[in-house]
């Protein structure tokens, strides 16, 4: 049975303590925090996804900065910046797991460079002898090559610096490979480079898929209590990996054939020859200008040559796009965040090139005489600009397994 209603005294009649009336709900100000929400990185979806070319431009900027120095501290800072961005913005796709493989490849390159320097000698003179190896006498036609002999600390440090620079270049390329979607990158290519782009994208995706297949098979063998190391285990893992790669290639070829890949429009021969000349000439100019930028002697003519090559190549690509009859469904666009990501890598490259003009000794520590490398302040701060994508790029959504574990 329900209780009878109880008469409560009115607070204003008997002088008792007033009963607090419910407060009216407050409406949040829509203008509060608008600028912060605009700057904060949103969760990535199909509408705001970063352009894959922005990741490659960012990584190439870091690689250009790595090519301008042999300071191991700056090279290590570049690797740390690339690794942090990859850890903050990579997805769960197969190609996103290839960064660790590129790091291991970089360490292998350093080890091979030092080993070759020890075994075959080096032109770097030195006074700090580490060990003496038996020297193999060589004929006169092999003059300049030495097998064994005196190993100095100067030549080992020089080989270590040289190998670290090449390893950093590989790691920067691995960062772009782990962050950029190769299928979307292929869709963003001009029509004149579509056939070449397919071959490049297939070659780029081979290594990540290979790493993913090897990791999956090793995990399966470990769960079954089988060995994952040794020559026998490698042979047993290699055959399924190659078989899977062959099946994937056949499936891709069948899907491309079903979609009418290879169709082209009829273009007059004069237009076709002009397109070939402009494209090849422009790409050669871009390659020559890029090589001149990476060398210390080409600073005067590198930028004009690179600019002329870019204009010629773009004209050839626009003209060659007429022979492509394909269309793009929801093409990716270079939004403000994509420009910021690409611009951060370009800023790192430009500032490091500029730093090579006023502080060459800081970027290239001396080996003869052997000195301890120091961390220059301004080049290090310029490298930290490469961390910008970790804060402004859209955050990849969590996978289902990550959500369940969280």
From TrEMBL:
Acyltransferase recorded as keyword: no
Top-level taxon of the source organism: Bacteria
Heme recorded as keyword: no
Stretches that traverse the bilayer: 55-87, 99-124, 192-212, 276-294, 300-319, 339-357, 377-395
Region feature Disordered, mapped onto this chain: 1-32
Keywords (A to Z) from UniProt: Membrane, Transmembrane, Transmembrane helix
Protein name in the entry: Energy-coupling factor transporter transmembrane protein EcfT
Source species: Streptomyces albipurpureus
